[in-house]
Structure formats: structure tokens, C-alpha cells
């Protein structure tokens, strides 16, 4: 009887008070299914063309997947300069996260600060146990306490909805296809192949198929990423009950990006998929079109609707 109760309590604790999002769940499942199909096609082409090297292919692909799943979050956090801090070192940041954890009824993640003037925040981790939430010094310096709490609630919703882990797995195929394309081109496979050689023609398919797979997986992850950011905004606004604070933070952070030196923004751009607000070093329409985040107007419109809903009696 006691074991049953303990399991029930553990199961209850595993679900946070963040609002569930069936649309996000459906999109994550659909993205993983399509990514899996592309993965099978890519591996099938490699095995068909390089028949004698199938053990090496399976070891390479399997090793890449394990490395991407288990270490990508640590590598990303390290690359973005995240350093874990204690409550004594960052009492305001820890206090805000403690309040969100109490509201959401979820375990506290590791807390980190990145020394960067780019105002931003991000979350990494495969699960709640391995999660890390980080804020930059530029963000902490610019936001009011209520605004900071809204941003952190947004980031922790990614952990609660487990979309961080899904994005990590989904991005694996794009990384793998990109590596295969570069290796095939740099290795001169297509250059050294004869046009009338059946084996050479088959080998020429490797960079072509890899490039197509990379493009499709890129588009799939971008579509999922845009929706998950809207979902995180919605969940954070409903949890804190202050969508206006999150809207204020969005407006302030986006406006401050224009004042950040271009060199700093370029360093941050590779990690835009992790950030609360993307860092752009230019105003090119193409970069905005392929952004991992929805437009500021779309995010603010959603928060305005939520604020109106919460104001109704």
C-alpha cells in the first residue's frame, strides 16, 4: 500500500502545473516521425552505396546520436559561457527560480549565469533532473524583477514540456547530414567519380541526398521551434498570471539587441535556437524568415489576448 502511494506521489510530482499544450505534443510527435523517416532514408542510402562499410556506418551514426543526445546540452551551455552559481552568488536569480518552481510544482534546475552583454536566457537538459536555466549578465542588468520572472518561467516551461530534449534529438539528423555532406564534398567523392561509372554515379548521390535531408530537417526543426516558443510564452503567462510582464521583457530585450555590438551578436547567433529572443547581427529578411522564433508582433499579440482573457470575470 505504501509503495503504491509513493509511486502515485512520484507520478504526480512528475507533472508540473504548467498548462498542457496538445498542439505542441502533436507537433513534437509529428516532427519526430518525419525526422525518423528522413533518418532511415539517409542511413539506407549510405548502406546501399557503401555496402562493404556498413559496420563503420552504423558505429559512426550510432556514436553521433549518443554524443548528440547525451552531451549536446553540456556543449551548448559551455559554448555560451554558462557558469553555475550558488544562491549566495546570485540571490535574485535563485529567488526568482525558486518562486517559479513553487508555482509550477517542479524540481529546481541548475542555475547559471553567462557573462555577456547580450540580454538573453536559455534552458538546456534532456530532463528535469539534468536541466539548466541560464541568464546573461546583460539580461539581469536590464530587467525588472517581474520581467525577469516572466523570462525564467518561459525557459522553465521548455523543460516542463520536454521540448528541449525533442529539439536535441530532432536537430541530430541535420547535424549528421551536414557532416556527411561536407565530408563527401571535401573528400572529393563526386570529383573523382566518372560520369559513366555506375559506382561513381551512386557515390555522387551521397552529398545530394545528405543536402536534401539537411534542408528538410532544418525546416522541420524551425517550424517546431517557432511553435514551441509561442507555447512557452503562453504557458509562462498563464503560470505567473502576468502576461504584461513577459510582454514588457520581450519588448525591452528585442529593443536592446539593436544597441549590442555586431561582433557580440555574431558570436551569439549560432545559439539562437536556445535563446529567449534571437540575436541578429543584420536585418536581412532571409535571416528573419528562417528564424527559430516567431516575430515579436506575433508573440505580443498572443500575450495581449491572454491578458484580456485573464481580465475577464
Descriptive account of the structure:
The protein is mainly alpha-helical and 313 residues long. It has one domain (22-311). The protein is 68% helix and 5% strand. The protein contains 12 helices and 4 strands. It has helices at residues 2-14, 22-49, 54-79, 91-104, 137-142, 145-160, 163-186, 198-240, 243-257, 262-268, 285-289, 296-311; strands at residues 82-84, 110-114, 121-124, 132-136. The protein has a 4-stranded mixed sheet with strand order 1-2-4-3, with helices on both faces. Helix 8 (198-240) crosses helix 9. It is globular, with a radius of gyration of 22 Å. The two termini are 43 Å apart. The relative contact order is 0.13. Mean pLDDT is 82; it is low at 1-13.
> Which assembly state applies to the chains in this document?
single chain
Number of helical segments?
12
Number of strands: 4
**Share of helix among residues?**
55-70%
| Unreliably modeled segments | 1-13
- Percentage of β-strand residues: 5-15%
Mean pLDDT over all positions: 82
Strand order of the largest sheet: 1-2-4-3
The coarse overall form would be: globular
Which structural class best describes the helix and strand composition? mainly alpha
The N- and C-terminal alpha carbons lie at a distance of 43 Å
The tally of domains stands at 1
- Report the sheet with the most strands, covering strand number, pairing sense and barrel closure: 4 strands, mixed
Q: Helices and strands, in N-to-C order?
A: HHHEHEEEHHHHHHHH
Amino acid at each position: 500500500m505504501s509503495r503504491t502511494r509513493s509511486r502515485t506521489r512520484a507520478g504526480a510530482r512528475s507533472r508540473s502545473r504548467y498548462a498542457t499544450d496538445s498542439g505542441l505534443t502533436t507537433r513534437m510527435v509529428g516532427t519526430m516521425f518525419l525526422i525518423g523517416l528522413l533518418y532511415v532514408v539517409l542511413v539506407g542510402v549510405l548502406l546501399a552505396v557503401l555496402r562493404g562499410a556498413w559496420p563503420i556506418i552504423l558505429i559512426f551514426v550510432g556514436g553521433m546520436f549518443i554524443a548528440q543526445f547525451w552531451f549536446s546540452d553540456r556543449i551548448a551551455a559551455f559554448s555560451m559561457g554558462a557558469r553555475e552559481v550558488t544562491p549566495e552568488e546570485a540571490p535574485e536569480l535563485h529567488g526568482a527560480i525558486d518562486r517559479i518552481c513553487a508555482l509550477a510544482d517542479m524540481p529546481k534546475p541548475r542555475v547559471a549565469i553567462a557573462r555577456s552583454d547580450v540580454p538573453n536566457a536559455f534552458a538546456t537538459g534532456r530532463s528535469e533532473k539534468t536541466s539548466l536555466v541560464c541568464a546573461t549578465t546583460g539580461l539581469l542588468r536590464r530587467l525588472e524583477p517581474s520581467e525577469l520572472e516572466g523570462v525564467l518561467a518561459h525557459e522553465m516551461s521548455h523543460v516542463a514540456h520536454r521540448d528541449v530534449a525533442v529539439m536535441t534529438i530532432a536537430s541530430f539528423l541535420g547535424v549528421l547530414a551536414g557532416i556527411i555532406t561536407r565530408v563527401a564534398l571535401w573528400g572529393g567523392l563526386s570529383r573523382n567519380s566518372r560520369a559513366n561509372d555506375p559506382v561513381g554515379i551512386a557515390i555522387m548521390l551521397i552529398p545530394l541526398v545528405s543536402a536534401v535531408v539537411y534542408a528538410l530537417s532544418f525546416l522541420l526543426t524551425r517550424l517546431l521551434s517557432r511553435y514551441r516558443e509561442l507555447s512557452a510564452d503562453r504557458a509562462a503567462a498563464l503560470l505567473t498570471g502576468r502576461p504584461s510582464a513577459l510582454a514588457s521583457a520581450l519588448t525591452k530585450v528585442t529593443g536592446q539587441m539593436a544597441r549590442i555590438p555586431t561582433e557580440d551578436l555574431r558570436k551569439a547567433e549560432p545559439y539562437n535556437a536556445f535563446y529567449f529572443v534571437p540575436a541578429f547581427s543584420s536585418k536581412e529578411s532571409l535571416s528573419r524568415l528562417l528564424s527559430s522564433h516567431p516575430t515579436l508582433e506575433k508573440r505580443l499579440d498572443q500575450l495581449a489576448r491572454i491578458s484580456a482573457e485573464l481580465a475577464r470575470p
